[in-house]
């Protein structure tokens, strides 16, 4: 594995672990526990070499999409999908996350008896199973459109999001290999989603595609993800837009969308007062946790404890949760933050 020096010290990591946090950009199948992947692969008699590849840790952006294909070969049954959803949420709760907004791509896999609808129901059942056992963490769900999908497939996903809106699906995400497809394919589906009151987050600028990134900015999604590869004009349009941006430090550095932690565009955007939120992207694929992402930011951008608290608190407002849930989260956050401040002072 490519050795990425951990920039932070144990004290910074412990502080970030103690922070109440909000996760707004976590792909379900990229966050599956390695031990669960191994177990599911063994049940399906899938070559253990595949699991080794998944665990390798060092990968280009193109290789990541090969890894997702491998993971998707393992997470094919309703019970596996329920299980990984519950476990990913348990891992979020263990990392002191108070609100987890997961995202996942509904999949039609007739060879495994899976439809997009039964996929979504399995994820919701996993969320319910988690919530029955855990009361401390709120959960949200976005349905992803994969850039490999056609206009019709994208519209089907939007219809499912509308159907399951009352069960906690708050919006849509556009993701997948950023070198594939074209924005005009999914735009009508995203227009329909927005018209029906769903929130939208777009992966944008993960690779340099200035024309597409500019069209996405003009469309004004509720949030953007990544925005790593921009020219000067796009950078100023992003700043002028004030659209909250999900930033995934390890993911961007490991896939070389960004040269290194100190060079990450977090620095410039944060200091310009742009709304940013730290996220994991694919905690399993990039061997990280949200606390670790916070610790990396704290160390790389020389942020103090008060700044980290504010960063975490503000991310509540960028979530797609309903306002009464945001209020609850702010109350829970303030209570936990007061304890942290009290213990640092004593
Ligand atoms: C773009 C990504 C991604 O939906 O099967 N995904 N899309 N850029 C990234 N940066 C590394 N990481 C993950 O989770 C896996 C899917 O999420 C998207 C890809 O479409 C991937 O197949 P789900 O739960």
Structure description:
This protein is α/β, with parallel strands linked by helices. It has one domain: TIM Barrel (Alpha-Beta Barrel), CATH 3.20.20. The protein contains 15 helices and 8 strands. The protein has helices at residues 10-18, 34-43, 48-55, 61-74, 78-94, 116-133, 151-163, 183-195, 210-219, 232-241, 249-254, 266-271, 290-300, 305-318, 323-345, and strands at 21-27, 97-104, 138-146, 169-175, 199-204, 223-226, 245-247, 276-278. Strands 1-2-3-4-5-6-7-8 form an 8-stranded parallel sheet, sandwiched between helices. Helix 8 (183-195) links the parallel strand 4 (169-175) and strand 5. The protein is globular and about 60 Å long. The model has no long low-confidence stretch (mean pLDDT 94). Residues 27-30, 64, 68, 104-105, 144, 146, 175-176, 178, 203, 206, 251, 255, 281-282 line the site of N6-methyladenosine-5'-monophosphate. The site of N6-methyladenosine-5'-monophosphate has 19 residues, from helix 4 and strand 3.
| Spatial separation of the terminal alpha carbons | 41 Å
The arrangement of helices and strands along the chain is HEHHHHEHEHEHEHEHEHHEHHH
Round the mean pLDDT to the nearest integer and report it. Answer: 94
* CATH classification class: Alpha Beta
Give the low-pLDDT segments.
none
- Tally the helices: 15
At the fourth level of CATH, the homologous superfamily is Metal-dependent hydrolases
Q: What is the level-2 CATH architecture name?
A: Alpha-Beta Barrel
| Strand-residue proportion | 5-15%
CATH level-3 fold name: TIM Barrel
Largest sheet properties: 8 strands, parallel
> Percent range for helical residues?
40-55%
* Sheet/helix structural class: alpha/beta
The total count of strands amounts to 8
Rough shape? globular
Radius of gyration: 19 Å
Bound molecules: N6-methyladenosine-5'-monophosphate
């Amino acid at each position: 594995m490519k050795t990425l020096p951990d920039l932070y010290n144990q004290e910074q990591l412990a502080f970030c672990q103690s922070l109440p946090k909000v996760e707004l950009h976590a792909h379900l199948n990229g966050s599956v526990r390695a031990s669960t992947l191994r177990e599911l692969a063994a049940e399906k008699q899938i070559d253990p070499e595949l699991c080794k590849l998944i665990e390798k840790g060092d990968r280009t952006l193109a290789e990541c999409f090969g890894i997702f294909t491998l993971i998707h070969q393992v997470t094919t049954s309703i019970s596996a999908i329920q299980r990984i959803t519950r476990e990913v949420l348990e891992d979020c709760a263990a990392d002191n996350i108070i609100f987890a907004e997961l995202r996942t791509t509904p999949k039609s896999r007739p060879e495994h008896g899976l439809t997009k609808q039964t996929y979504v129901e399995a994820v919701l059942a996993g969320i319910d199973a988690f919530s029955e056992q855990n009361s401390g963490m709120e959960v949200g769900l976005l349905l992803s459109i994969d850039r490999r999908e056609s206009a019709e497939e994208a519209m089907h996903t939007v219809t499912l999001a509308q159907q399951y809106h009352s069960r906690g699906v708050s919006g849509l995400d556009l993701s997948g290999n950023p070198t594939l497809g074209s924005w005009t394919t999914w735009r009508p589906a995203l227009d329909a989603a927005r018209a029906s009151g769903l929130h939208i987050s777009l992966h944008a600028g993960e690779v340099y595609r200035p024309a597409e990134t500019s069209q996405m900015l003009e469309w004004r999604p509720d949030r953007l993800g990544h925005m790593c590869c921009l020219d000067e004009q796009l950078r100023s349009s992003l700043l002028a837009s004030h659209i909250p941006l999900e930033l995934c430090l390890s993911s961007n550095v490991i896939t070389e969308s960004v040269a290194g932690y100190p060079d990450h565009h977090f620095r410039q955007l944060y200091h310009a007062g742009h709304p940013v939120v730290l996220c994991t992207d694919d905690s399993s694929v990039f061997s990280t946790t949200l606390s670790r992402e916070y610790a990396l930011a704290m160390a790389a951008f020389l942020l103090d404890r008060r700044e980290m608290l504010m960063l975490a608190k503000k991310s509540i407002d960028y979530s797609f949760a309903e306002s009464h849930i945001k209020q609850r989260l702010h109350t829970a956050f303030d209570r936990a933050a007061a304890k942290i401040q009290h213990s640092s002072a004593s």
